[in-house]
Specification:
The chain is α/β, with parallel strands linked by helices and 401 residues long. The protein has 15 helices and twelve strands. The strands form two sheets. A seven-stranded mixed beta sheet has the order 1-7-6-5-4-2-3, with helices on both faces. Strands 8-9-12-11-10 form a five-stranded mixed beta sheet, with helices on one face. Helix 7 links the parallel strand 4 and strand 5. Helix 1 runs antiparallel to helix 3, helix 3 packs parallel to helix 10 and helix 11 crosses helix 15. The structure holds pyridoxal-5'-phosphate. The site of pyridoxal-5'-phosphate has 16 residues, from helix 4 and helix 5.
Length: 401
């Protein structure tokens, strides 16, 4: 049977304690035990269904985790206070002193900075490679390597990772494949293709309201329990716990993710096709001209499309800035970082979200100055948006081929 992540989410039913159609929100940091013995057993991790303390888990966090595990097709999931809270806990759980990571070089700036500047404190080294070249990926593996890390669709260059091939390499070397799927929820289900751990920043498409930060780690029950082990779990000990109220609100927003993703994808595809026809330098995985187009097509849950992210290179930072200010003035979107909002968001990654990456390296990976990253919104009339945007492009004298 076909794996449809949105159906899996829909099949989960939770009622409130008075029959409410939404589950009750757990409003407690700590929980009583009827017997002292049960409290001891819970500390030892031997009691299913008992709550101890909300940094460990809470009913609201478990509901959201269960829904996200269903979406990714994993046994379990732990929600975290942010996407970075998920990424840092996973990497510190899987790697110890002297270990090594092979990572895609085009990743979220914060993840890059963590690997490059922070993990060396623990003598954990990272080799950054071109993830679209499996031979280079495999060649970077050393006896100390524990993890291959990539984004299913990368930030900001929208490179597409071959999850099956990377998973095969990981199996061969006995290491773990960790995939950040923030750019392609529902579109791509990495665990179904062999990823061991799937991470999301819930801050983006999944919550979709730009009103909070959050994250999730989806993986095996064994791994998720290990992360929250009271003695040596990186999730438990680093303490990036999601608040229960927030877990409840994100779960409600998750209910409309499938509708939103279809609309984000439909609008992004339309704009990408039009701007490409006009001769602009558009990068969108749904365009046959995109290097990863066929790979995306082979890996995707087709009804959700190619996602809401696209980039356009307008030649220089000055022009990018002028254009973004103009588009904001005409209410076509907001000049803001982040993604997955109902409104289109745009930013120049070279000077914002990817500024952690040194200039030479930005150049090498093809991250040019004039690149604008768009998170396309849920505009009802995308044709009107297109014609208004095009006027801005003409006023800003953006060159076309
Ligand atoms: C935003 C983002 C993160 C970090 O998530 P936060 O919720 O901001 O901590 C990680 N990976 C990707 C791809 C992102 O876009």
């Amino acid at each position: 049977m076909k794996f449809n992540p949105a159906d899996k989410i829909q099949d989960l039913q939770y009622f409130g304690e008075f029959g409410g159609v939404n589950p009750s929100i757990s409003d407690s940091s700590t929980y009583t035990f009827l017997s002292a013995k049960t409290m001891f057993d819970t500390f030892e991790g031997n009691t299913e269904g008992c709550y101890l303390y909300s940094r460990h888990s809470s009913p609201s966090n478990l509901y959201l985790g269960e829904a996200l595990a269903a979406m990714e097709g994993t046994e379990s999931a732990n929600v975290t206070a942010s996407g970075m809270g998920a990424i840092t806990a996973v990497l510190l759980q899987l790697c110890g002193t002297g270990d090594h990571i092979v990572s895609s070089r085009t990743i979220y700036g914060g993840t890059y900075a963590f690997m490059k500047n922070f993990l060396p404190r623990f003598e954990i080294g990272t080799s950054f490679v071109d993830i679209t070249d499996p031979e280079k990926v495999e060649a970077a593996i050393t006896p100390e390597t524990k993890v291959i890390f990539c984004e299913a669709v990368s930030n900001p260059l929208l490179e597409v990772a071959d999850i099956k091939e990377l998973s095969r390499i990981c199996r061969k070397h006995g290491i773990k494949l960790v995939v950040d799927n923030t750019f392609s929820p529902l579109n791509i289900a990495p665990a179904k293709m062999g990823a061991d751990v799937v991470i999301h920043s819930l801050t983006k498409f999944i919550n979709g309201a730009s009103d909070c930060v959050g994250g999730v780690v989806c993986g095996s029950t064994e791994f998720c329990l290990a992360l929250k082990d009271v003695n040596d779990g990186a999730g438990m000990l680093l303490g990036s716990t999601m608040d229960s109220l927030r877990a409840a609100s994100i779960l409600k927003n998750l209910r409309t993710l499938h509708i939103r993703m279809k609309k984000h994808s439909e609008n992004a595809l339309y704009l990408a096709q039009q701007f490409e026809k006009d001769g602009f330098k558009v990068v969108y995985p749904g365009l046959p001209s995109h290097k990863g187009h066929l790979l995306f097509k082979n890996q995707m849950n087709s009804e959700y499309g190619y996602g809401g992210m696209l980039t356009i290179d307008v030649g220089s930072l000055e022009r990018a800035n002028e254009l973004m200010e103009m588009m904001q003035e005409r209410n076509l979107g907001y000049l803001a970082v982040s993604l997955g909002f109902y409104k289109t968001l745009f930013s120049a990654p070279g000077t914002s979200t990817s500024s952690e990456i040194p200039l030479e390296e930005q150049e090498e990976m093809g991250l040019s100055d004039g690149l604008i990253r768009f998170s396309i919104g849920l505009d009802n009339d995308i044709e009107r948006t297109y014609s208004e945007m095009k006027k801005c492009f003409q006023t800003a004298h953006v060159a076309s081929n």
